[in-house]
Amino acid sequence: DSGVTQTPKHLITATGQRVTLRCSPRSGDLSVYWYQQSLDQGLQFLIQYYNGEERAKGNILERFSAQQFPDLHSELNLSSLELGDSALYFCASSVVPRDTQETQYFGPGTRLLVL
Amino acid sequence: AQSVAQPEDQVNVAEGNPLTVKCTYSVSGNPYLFWYVQYPNRGLQFLLKYITGDNLVKGSYGFEAEFNKSQTSFHLKKPSALVSDSALYFCAVGADSWGKLQFGAGTQVVVTP
Q1: How far A2 CA lies from chain B's nearest CA (Å)?
Q2: A109 part of contact set with chain B, CB < 8 Å
Q3: pLDDT of A9-46, one tens digit each?
Q4: Nearest Cα to Cα of residue A103 among B69, B57, B81, B2
Q5: Which residues of A15-28 are buried (b: 16+ CB within 10 A; e: fewer)?
Q6: CA distance A4 to chain B (A)
Q7: pLDDT tens figures, B5-58
Q8: Are A48 and B102 inside 8 Å of each other by CB?
């Protein structure tokens, strides 16, 4: 158990809908990362937050957004869902942001299925 | 820009035999290299990382990895594989600021009894 929690574990929804994925980082970690894992794209970095502020963006679609709250939990919002958004979404956390040597610890993921 | 390649989609090995999972990288600047393992329906688990120092890094569950700067490689190794090592292994490289990691495509390891 990494100490990173994600809810829900599974999510089934329809095209055009909007969902929110939630992540709680390890105790003491200030930085949160979101990744998408799909069969065709592999594991892709989406976005990173540090202490409430966005710090890095990767291959995140405009239909997707995220935020980190004062208690450091983070939410990833996916809107206007398409079939291709079906994937496993991971959250990871680390202690400090500006140090790529810091290990990122991953949560168990949220499996999203868009029908 | 940074990138990482795992040239093998799958590695098959008999239990008790040595296991090697290959990884090569490309970064500008000093690389920070990681190995993660993913079991079915689970998140990624950290195995080991190379930051600086000894080229041979020891990690969890008996795994180790060798950093080779001239060959830009960071291969994962285990002297004696177990059936329970069957999983998906990811190599990752970090070099940009703010901690972004670039992951390889993953290598499926199958250890047969």
Answers
A1: 8
A2: yes
A3: 999 999 999 999 999 999 999 999 999 999 888 899 99
A4: B57
A5: eeeebebbbbbbee
A6: 10
A7: 999 999 999 999 999 999 999 988 888 899 999 998 788 999 999 988 889 999
A8: no
